[in-house]
Specification:
Layout lengths: L6 E6 L2 H11 L3 E5 L3 E6 L2 E7 L13 E3 L5 H10 L9 E3 L2 E7 L5 E6 L4
Parallel strand pairs: 1-4, 5-8
Antiparallel strand pairs: 2-3, 3-4, 6-7, 7-8
GO molecular function: lyase activity; methylmalonyl-CoA epimerase activity
Keywords: Isomerase, Lyase
InterPro entries: Anthracycline_SecMetBiosynth, Glyas_Bleomycin-R_OHBP_Dase, Glyas_Fos-R_dOase_dom, VOC_core
């Protein structure tokens, strides 16, 4: 039985660019950086940036990392757009919350998530 998520590994093409995105744009704390592997702390969840070995193909679909902004969703979208982040859709409202999809510097799917207001 799984008792929680230990870490999330994200494939990257350019380690420096990816570290810059997750650290400088998203504001996560960099805890380790090496040419082939770097780690960031996402509020207690470890995100590992794993260098592609040149043979891995980019693929649509797969895992998506959701981030909860400190501020409201619209403010965070504005902040990230100002930092050059490419959003792949608009904010969508659901009974379970609100989301907006975007890409990291390596083309991986990410999203912002805000829980429903009670």
């Amino acid at each position: 039985m799984a008792t929680g998520v230990a870490s999330v590994w994200v494939p990257v093409d350019d380690m420096e660019r990816a570290v810059g995105f997750y650290r400088d744009v998203l504001g996560l704390e960099l805890t380790d950086q090496q040419p082939q592997w770097s780690e960031l702390d996402a509020g207690g969840l470890r995100i590992g940036l794993n260098a592609r070995e040149g043979v891995s193909q980019h693929a649509d679909g797969g895992a998506v990392i959701s981030f909860r902004p400190d501020d409201d969703l619209e403010s965070e979208v504005d902040r990230l757009r100002g930092a050059g982040v490419r959003f792949t859709g608009d904010i969508s409202d659901h009974e379970w919350g609100r989301i907006v999809p975007f890409k990291d510097s390596e083309g991986n799917d990410l999203q912002l998530y805000a829980p429903p207001k009670n």
